[in-house]
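pinned: reference chain
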Amino acid sequence: MKARSSQLIISSLLFGALLIVTLNAWVSYRAVATLSESQYWVAHTWQVMNAVERVLGLLKDAETGTRGYLLTGDDGYLAPFALAKANLPDELDLLKRLTTDNPQQQQRIIEMRAVIDQRIGTLNEGVKEREAGNTDSVRLFVLTGTGKAEMDHARALAAAMQDTEQQLLHERTAASTSARQKADTTLIGASALDIFLLILLFLNLGRERALRQKADEAAEQLQELQSVSDVALTRLTLTELADELLDRVRTVTHADGVVLCMWHDGEIEVSAANGIAVNRGRRIKLSESDPLYQAAVGNRVVTLTGTSAAHIPLEGLSREMHAVLLLPLTIADRVVGILMAGRRATNAFEDTDEQLLTVVADRIALSLDRVNAYEAERNARKLAEASATEVQALNTELEERVRQRTAELEATNRELEAFSYSVSHDLRAPLRSVDGISVALEEDYGEQLTPEARDFLRRIRAGVQKMGQLIDALLQLSRITRAELVREDINLTALAEEVASDLRQQNPGRNLIFRIQPGMSANADPRLLRVALENLLGNAVKFTEKREEAVIEIQYDSTSNEFFVRDNGAGFDMRYAGKLFTAFQRLHGDRDFQGSGIGLATVSRVIRRHGGQAQAEGIVGQGATFRFTLG
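pinned: its structure tokens
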């Protein structure tokens, strides 16, 4: 009897919970439906406002294009007029459909259609007069400005429609906000009640799920550890093995970045990395106080967090990771390398992570020992099988490849020379013609032109000058590609001071402060390196023009063997850093900073020709740093 009563109580509770959940779902559905309707009307209002803007924009384009045609006779100016003439009826029909709920707006659309039809008809008459050669009628049409009243009328109608929609937008936004608040309140209340009812059920399920997940994780880790051990059976070269090992280690340990270094009695040699940029083959001498030295000599795991992690002599690791584990790799009780695993969060490693990584380090050491044995055996076999016939065949093949590559390079150089000639002559000639005609038109007919027409001439000349600058930049980029690289030891400090002096003369009104490190030198082509510095420093001067005091530094980082140029200018968003060294890719518009978009591409080309690398770092509003090596 007691069991039946308990079962009845449980059934009643489950039925009540189901009823409450169903009621909550219905209330939430109604609240969300009300919110969706409010948001629809807000979006509808924006759609009407955008349609009004498109109608007015098409009418302006028709007016501007027709006037350009009447003034110049160039059929190219009729394209906006033709586009507007074709699209305006459809846009007005769309606007009418969108405002069927508003009689006042419908009446304005009818009035606007009449004004637009009248204006399009007038413009069409002007085009016909011009086509018929009646220049006097065309001149009268341009100078009298007959369309001003019609355009003002159209603008007034558009403004009235926009004001009405703005008022509706305000009301509908307020209604949407209120609906959202009600929906949020309803959903929060319903969700809280549902969660309370479900917590009891999830307590037992959660406990069971945690135990199952722990067992699954243990099995998965064992499988992943086995994959670390098996990698040496499929990759028999040291480079391939190191890359594959670190890729699997990062997967097993969920580290943000891992680095493998070989140990050479007080020095480490960077072998491979995953998730972090490093210079392979770089050797670093360690001091006895360095944590890497202590981990290797003491053959013990070292954990670094916070500021202590920043002292690791690998810039990518110290700059990006705030928690690092150092694990020695041992073969027969002899330390042969160090595995470094980093995470960006401080105190991110737990005891289980250290235990797992210790096992991983042992597996990596065994894999390295195995691959070293394979490579030794393979090298010995290759030396034993080498013969004079094979060497001769190899030399013949190499000579043929050299001949082919030489022919390809000669053909490429000829194509580049033809391109440079075309850019410097064929493209400049029409530009000079356009600029000369614009100047003549402004000087001979300047007083007869309307302010709008004079503005058009100004834009034409500005575009011609911009095109000329782009041609100069492309020519410089082409010359850098074809120029012979002649390295010599140069005083980079003196070269930077010369470029800085030129920039001061070009910007007499600017407060430019150059901090150039003394004693910098490099083995490079002085002409090409000067081009790179001119672009880098010129870039820094340009993007600090809004600073009262522009501070530009040129320094050398002996730790990373990099030169860098740093400024306190506009900076940039690091999400777009990959676009900086690509031609015509700009992160700022011409209204903010003038430029061709080729300067940093030229810098990248110079650095690559020297066998180096270039990279950029920046923070919006706080400046940028450009680093480069010279091979």
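why pinned: The first strand starts at residue 257 and ends at 263. The two ends are 90 Å apart (CA to CA).
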